[in-house]
Amino acid sequence: MREEAKKKQTKNYKRQRLFKSFEREALKYALLEEEILNRKK
Predict the structure, then answer these.
(1) Tens-level pLDDT at each residue, the chain (41 residues)
(2) Domain residues for 6?
(3) Which top-rank group of organisms is this from (predicted)?
(4) pTM here?
(5) In 3-state terms, what secondary structure has residue 27?
């Protein structure tokens, strides 16, 4: 039982890390897009 909980925790941790890095990338692209739109004006 404890081993199963440990696996679940690790899985959640990995998912969180993945999401955080994905969030950072998304933010970077959003800022880039905004910059491009501002240049077009």
Answers:
(1) 789 999 999 999 999 999 999 999 999 999 999 999 999 87
(2) 1-41
(3) Bacteria
(4) 0.56
(5) helix
